[in-house]
Amino acid sequence: MSTNRREGNNRRQELIDATLNCIENEGLQGTTVRKVADYAGVTNGLIRFYFSGKDELMRAAYAALLDQIYSHARIAVDDDTVKPQVRLRNFISATLSYPIVAPRTVLLWANFLPVTYIDTEMSIIRNEAYVETTNILEPLIRDSFLDNGIALDDKKVKNYAIQVNAIIDGLWIEGSLAGNKFQRNELVNLGIEATAAILSLKI
Amino acid sequence: MSTNRREGNNRRQELIDATLNCIENEGLQGTTVRKVADYAGVTNGLIRFYFSGKDELMRAAYAALLDQIYSHARIAVDDDTVKPQVRLRNFISATLSYPIVAPRTVLLWANFLPVTYIDTEMSIIRNEAYVETTNILEPLIRDSFLDNGIALDDKKVKNYAIQVNAIIDGLWIEGSLAGNKFQRNELVNLGIEATAAILSLKI
DNA sequence: CATAATTTTATACACTTGCATAATAATGAT
DNA sequence: ATCATTATTATGCAAGTGTATAAAATTATG
Hints:
Two copies of one chain form a homodimer.
Chain A: H1 11-26, H2 33-40, H3 47-50, H4 54-78, H5 84-95, H6 103-116, H7 120-129, H8 133-147, H9 154-177, H10 186-199
The structure holds a DNA duplex.
């Protein structure tokens, strides 16, 4: 029988992608090593050549998902040559745009979330990758107020961060799962408006 | 061997509860008919006496979960002898309190969410039970403004509802998964404050 | 081009899964 | 008490599961 080898060795990444595609389409229950192999266009035995077993494959897939999500969110914040208000707006804009806003992303997140409460290794992966969103938001919020000559106490900053984080998460889920409900920049605008209202601050 | 029959016939409900408990603790993957039977303290064969199969059991469990969630949310809104602002506050308060705010509730919700995008029957159950939260929020928001002598156009009402819905969902998830991060009424207060800010309305 | 190393397939195995069915126990009716 | 009905267990089966392993195909190396 003809094999399926491709130039370069990206099999490992292909198998990870196939895993995420399989989970997206078939759910955790429908994700077997054989189906993942089908998605990748190889036979199931190959998985054990690149991974010690299904568990390691799933962990690698979860880590890859988190990396995809957070890399987009981080880029928006990392440019600290601009005012904190702008960075805050960029963060909201990035988090409420494709590819973070997408059915696939939310579905994968929802599939993995319960696993991180059952499998210790998965929870470690999450905790390591998790850029505590509040840890991003708190300095941005504090500095945005400082830029307006207002010094907030820590408790106030924390509470604002929780609220802003909540509105972003809520809009993320709503926008991701609601088919074509939202126009191009509608979701971003709703997020920025709500954040400005919560902070009583022009951003 | 001794059997396990109990007075009254609540086996069906017991099996549904056992299913939710099993999903909560073991995840969808770990939820087999045998494990559910263990959780219920019966043998696996009994499940097929009350349900046509595992699929029907899972659907019944999902319907039960949605019913539990929405019954609490609805009660808070149904008292239309009070001002819309109060009903809105009651709705937020109920949605951001136990038992809706609880790790179990969010974990169960997350487990089922992807299934509703794979299994048509599950999506029907969700759509039937789903009290479109926006359909609750929109009239409450419209009437709250009317009570202040302000008539909002439909688009504005819709956008407000989306934002309020988002902050509630976001706080729900954050509060449910964040261990002991929040004091007794802290989450409710954060939700009401944020909503008031978004609407620029005292509620 | 021959041979070693790497990558991929093919196959088999032990175990789990959902489901079926017969046997058993408990309850209700007369 | 006897018998029919309902509820529960016990057991088995076919299909699917993750994993192991050997064979085959491909690539790299001299």
